[in-house]
Amino acid sequence: MKIIKAQVAVIGAGPSGLLLGQLLAKQGISNIILEKVTGEYVLGRIRAGILEQGFVDLVREAGVVDRMVAEGEVHEGFNIAINGHCVRIDMKKLSDGDSVVCYGQVEITRDLMEARQAAGLSTYYEVEGVKLKNVTSDNPSVTYTHAGEKYELQCDYIAGCDGFHGVSRPTIPAELRIEHERIYPFGWLGVLSDTPPVSDELIYCKHQRGFALASMRSATRSRYYIQVPLSDRVEDWPDDAFWDELKKRLPPEAAARLVTGPSIEKSIAPLRSFICEPMQYGNLFLVGDAAHIVPPTGAKGLNLAASDVATLYKVLLRVYKEGDKECIKQYSEIALRRVWHGERFSWWMTNMLHNFDDMGSHDLEGATFARFMESELSYYLASQAGQKVIAEQYVGLPYEELAPLDTRS
Ligand code: FAS
Ligand code: PHB
């Protein structure tokens, strides 16, 4: 067994692990990232596309923001269409100046990977058998195998950035975990295509045929989604069928502009709301999808991962720069406050925008719920106050600071 050491062990080289690793390294806090797949595989996962200002600021602090500034697009508004009638949410006006950046998760992950490599920081890809040891002691460690050799990574703290299917969350004893979950009775069929977007801002479409979203990655690359039953498989949706259905759900003026083309990625993602409480156990901290999952309707998944990273970064800075080990107790409570706001917003947008009709709930209960949600959405869109509620959550609620050293009881 080869012994290696670092102040912080990071499990997972997705956006959470890479961003945390970059921030810590810039402060001279040593960290090693362990990833179970290859870097190419991580980059092959097409996911999020909208970044809150808080995320952008964190990436700037990590010193990795240049390409995002050069190639990312600032969006000051987005659209919500109900059966073809579009309402624009003027985020910049309604949130007192905030906006979001449209820049693919793949790109920010690539930027972070390249920055980490350029800095000569340690990332072990294709590790196997990761196990977290003694996480409630002052000497936690992580054992794993890499290239046939067994390792023990001895550290002070472990950041579980290993996503929903990782090993970190199960390391917290089941009797200490409260897991909240809601599974939605539909999925999102997503298509990436090298075609010009139908609009220069996103369009979220509520339609009696089902939800659709027109997004993009650049002026020449579009990202589209349509709601599909959970029983559907990708092979049920040849490109032509996808384009025909999308066209039916888009507002007419957008449908008229739709440029179709071959899909370069096509996949169906299930939708769930999931939160694990607490988000820490001794010196193990859960970050991002390891602790929570949102339906992508509010563009919050990646952005909640970023606010977890921001909170853990502040905690570890306080520990190593000010010697305040006590502050680690603040992590879970602070992180969860913002996570629950993002979870609720994502749940609310999902309930308002999707069609629950053909989900086998033809009973009155389902129809009544559908009418309540239709009324809720049209009410919020019809008033400035309602639109402001949507805008300030979409751009992202503020990040919370740690309690000052001298005020804690
Ligand atoms: P990730 O899951 O990205 O990364 C975790 C990493 O840990 C992975 O690389 C994994 O290989 C690694 N790992 C797992 N187990 C390990 C082990 N035992 N040892 C070592 N490494 C291990 N969010 C949005 O905002 N908008 C979207 O449109 C959107 N679409 C999505 C579509 C899909 C199909 C999925 C799954 C998620 C989507 N998300 C979306 C959410 C997504 O972007 C996540 O929020 C984001 O990837 C979170 O990043 P991480 O917390 O780093 O987790
Ligand atoms: C995307 O571009 O992939 C995207 C944008 C906004 C969402 C979900 C996905 O709410």
How is this structure best described in words?
The chain has 409 residues and is α/β, with parallel strands linked by helices. The protein has a domain at 2-75 and 97-181 and 272-350: 3-Layer(bba) Sandwich (FAD/NAD(P)-binding domain). 36% of the residues lie in helices and 28% in strands. The chain is built from 13 helices and 21 strands. The strands form four sheets. The protein has an eight-stranded mixed sheet. Strands 9-3-2-13-20-19 form a six-stranded mixed sheet. Strands 1-12-11-10 form a four-stranded mixed sheet, with no helix packed on it. A hairpin with a 2-residue loop joins strand 11 (141-146) and strand 12. Helix 1 runs parallel beside helix 6 (105-118), helix 1 packs parallel to helix 10 (301-322) and helix 10 (301-322) runs antiparallel to helix 11. The radius of gyration is 22 Å and the shape is globular.
In brief:
It is built from 13 helices and 21 strands.
Topology:
Elements: E1 2-5, E2 8-11, H1 15-26, E3 31-34, H2 39-43, E4 50-51, H3 53-61, H4 66-71, E5 73-75, E6 77-82, E7 85-90, H5 91-94, E8 100-102, H6 105-118, E9 123-124, E10 128-133, E11 141-146, E12 149-154, E13 157-160, H7 168-171, E14 178-193, E15 203-206, E16 212-218, E17 221-229, H8 239-249, H9 252-257, E18 263-277, E19 280-281, E20 284-286, E21 292-293, H10 301-322, H11 331-353, H12 364-382, H13 384-394
Parallel strand pairs: 1-12, 2-3, 2-13, 3-9, 6-15, 13-20
Antiparallel strand pairs: 4-8, 5-8, 6-7, 10-11, 11-12, 14-17, 14-18, 15-16, 16-17, 18-21, 19-20
Helix pairs in contact: 1-6, 1-10, 10-11, 12-13
The structure holds arabino-flavin-adenine dinucleotide (FAS) and P-hydroxybenzoic acid.
